[in-house]
Amino acid sequence: MKNILLPTDFSENAWNATLYAINLYKEESCRFFLMNSYDVNGYHEGSVMDPVPAKEELVKHKAISEEKLHRLCEILKERFSNPSHNFKCVALNKTLIDSINNELNQHKFEVIFVGTQGTTGAYEVIFGSNTIQILNEIKNCPILAVPSNVSFQFINEIVLATSYEIEHSKEDLKYLIHLAKQNNSAIRILHIEESGGLSMSQKHNKYHLESCLKEIPHSAHSLAHVSIPIGIYCFTESRGSDMIVFINKKHNFFEKLLFKPLYKDLGNYSRIPLLVLHRSYE
After folding, report:
1. Cα–Cα separations (whole angstroms), residue 179 to 104, 175, 187, 212, 247
2. What's the CATH class of domain 2-147?
3. Among 40, 114, 200, 255, whose Cα sits 20 to 30 Å from the Cα of 152?
């Protein structure tokens, strides 16, 4: 049985990500962990810096969080009634990142689903501070960020954006390969040539990457004389792609895409789900 982590603040964004996850895994046996991290006057469990609030206040907030989680679970059970799915409620008085790490230390999760604002929000809230924090700080589990305006449909095409600067192992691609097989998806490897052609090492890494994906229908594509954000935006929009994937190395490549001013203007990743993988040995 696969474990899926669903952090929630009971917002529409989180609800949409939850629905996407349940639909994506409707044919698989899963345990969904609905997790809420709550705040009691800025106090978080385990902190030695913050004053401890009254016990009654802690009990009250825990009860509120647990009640909302259980209500959410009941709604999901009634709406989907999938015998292959079960739900676990987790209420923690910790920071969001500490809560996620707490669960990752106790269970092996296949993926974490988080919600994003989608195209209706300004850049500053397209992802939201919580999602940005998760993408930046959680490094040992795949993360799938789902825009609030995206409903689950068949994942026909997944775009893997790469610089070919790193030789990735099949372990790095494990979740992506499973996702593609699960959905009969094709993978389109996209490289944006910002300056010149491929070096010898990049050619080697390209060959190795394609060999790792030999079990999956795939093709390699490149665009030249265009910035990375515009290139990815144009490629995915023109093809109607269903997901973008990055394999993150210490967040350098991801941060370059996420925070550069040009991307700030486009807000392009708000249109389709974004899957962030991490190198298996970092």
Report:
1. 20, 6, 10, 14, 14
2. alpha beta
3. 255
Count Cα atoms within 13 angstroms, Cβ side, for 6: 30
CA–CA dist 192, 137 (Å, integer):
26
Selected from 3.30.565.10, 3.30.70.20, 3.40.50.620, 3.30.1330.10, the CATH number assigned to the domain covering 157-278 reads 3.40.50.620
| Cβ-contact 37, 7 below 8 angstroms | yes
User: CA nearest 93: which of 54, 43, 48, 49?
Assistant: 43
Q: How far apart are CA 241 and CA 54, in angstroms?
A: 52
Among 245, 229, 220, 253, smallest CA distance to 159 is for 245
Distance in angstroms (rounded) separating the CA atoms of residues 211 and 174 = 13
DSSP sequence for 38-86:
--BTTB-TT-SSSPPPPHHHHHHHHHHHHHHHHHHHHHHHHHH--TTEE
Predicted confidence (pLDDT) per residue in 150-189, tens digit: 899 899 999 999 989 888 888 899 999 999 999 999 999 9
Residue 180 to residue 29: CA distance in whole angstroms = 17
> pLDDT digit string (tens) for 25-64?
999 999 999 999 987 766 666 555 555 566 677 788 899 9
Domain regions of the chain by residue span: 2-147, 157-278
Taking CA atoms, 156 is separated from 21, 43, 72, 211, in Å, by 16, 45, 30, 21
